[in-house]
Structure formats: C-alpha cells, structure tokens
Amino acid sequence: MTITNEPVVLLERADIYQGTKPILADVNFHIDKGEFVFLIGRTGSGKSSLLKTLYADLWLQTGSARVAGYELHKIKRSDVPFLRRRIGIVFQDFQLLTDRSVEENLTFVLKATGWKEKADIARRISEVLMQVGLGTSPKKMPHQLSGGEQQRVVIARAMLNEPQILIADEPTGNLDPEVSEQIMQVFKTINTAGTAILMATHNYDLLKNHPARILKCENGVVHES
Ligand SMILES: Nc1ncnc2c1ncn2[C@@H]1O[C@H](COP(=O)(O)OP(=O)(O)OP(=O)(O)O)[C@@H](O)[C@H]1O
C-alpha cells in the first residue's frame, strides 16, 4: 500500500439521511492518520447515522466522503467488504458468536477475509489478543468472559486486518466506570501504535479524563466542540 499523508476520513458537503429523512446536513471534517476523535451529541442527534455512513451501511447520496482510500460517493456495493477491512468497527453490544470460543470467533473473521495459512492465523490471533490484554483466554467461550473482556475480544476482532481507523459506537455503553476506563486504555494503546480512532460516546468521564478532539452532532449539523 502506498503511504501518503491523506486523511483517513474526509467528508465534504456530505448530507446524511436515514431513508428520505435528513439527519445531518453539510458535514465537513477530516480525521488524520493516528488521530483520536470523540463524537458526541444527544440521543437521536445522528452519531450512529454518521458512523454508519462512514462504513457504508448508510449510502452517501450528496456530497463526498473518502474513508481509508475509498470514495463513498462512488463506491460499488462489491467494494464495501474491502472498505470494511480497512476500518475496524466496534459496537456497544458485543456481537460475538456465542457458540464459539474467542479463538474461533477470531479465526472466523480471518478466514472470511481470505487468510488461509494456519500458522499465520494463529500468530495474528495471538498478536491481537496480546494487544488488548487478553493473551491467556483464547479457548474461553464468550459466556465465560466478563463484559469488559468480551469488549476486548470485539476490539481484537476489529484489529485483525490492521485497520487504518477504528470506528466505535458507544463501546463502553454497557460497562461500569472502572471497566470503561480499562477499555479506554485499550483504545489509547491501539491509537498510540498508529491507528486512528473515532469513538461515539455519552460517557462524560471519558471526555474529561482523556482530552482529545471532539466532534459534536447538534441541530442537524456536525461541529468541532
Ligand atoms: N433505521 C432508521 N430508519 C429511520 N430513521 C432512523 C433509523 N435509525 C435512526 N433513525 C433516526 O435518525 C435520527 C438519528 O439517529 P441516530 O441513531 O443516528 O442518533 P444517535 O445520535 O446515534 O442516537 P443515540 O445516542 O441514541 O444512539 C433519529 O431521529 C432516529 O430516529
């Protein structure tokens, strides 16, 4: 891959819709490589809609957006899986396959994204589990893990294909304050190693304790806060 200084995310005059309902108008911002950005705003202000647009779950109809090298206003449906390999996605509800171990959850994603060699798969799984501080748990089933540990697995899963950016929608929404802080540390470690992070959150303790750039959805627009 060519290394350039172009932003990981660049939106210009983008309008965000849910179906025909306008949610956010004239959205303009960029996120540079390795940046950490919070996305805040009241319930219903459009945070999830904006994030969904970035990973092409919602279709960009007007304006332009480039994410991890893909032009969202021109992207073909067949390219969407390749876009999503360059971004990692983390949700509030952990969405692990409950009938498979940690290792099997991660293997499933690697195989689905073209990894074939057993040794490579094993090495990558061990790397991402170390990265999220879960090196000793590959054989455990999701129900044997705490909420915080499950969220670590989800973050590990999102990191498997070395994304340029992690997009996280309320990743600490189901966790108590102490565990939220631990998960925040995982994101910070990943960010320090070079991956950009865009995190939607309602958690004002995180904002207070971890000063970073803040984008706010308010009254149908997105502005720097
Ligand atoms: N699938 C959908 N179809 C139609 N409208 C939707 C859909 N999902 C969300 N909306 C509407 O879009 C608006 C923005 O919702 P969105 O979920 O993006 O907000 P949010 O800021 O992420 O809220 P929260 O903090 O509660 O997650 C709301 O008015 C919501 O009702």
UniProtKB/TrEMBL annotation:
Domain of life: Bacteria
An MF annotation (GO) of this entry: ATP hydrolysis activity
Ranges for domain ABC transporter: 9-225
Pfam family, one: ABC_tran
Keyword line: ATP-binding, Nucleotide-binding
Coiled coil regions, renumbered to chain: none
Keyword ATP-binding found: yes
GO cellular component, as recorded: plasma membrane
UniProt record similarity statement: Belongs to the ABC transporter superfamily.
Protein's UniProt name: Cell division ATP-binding protein FtsE
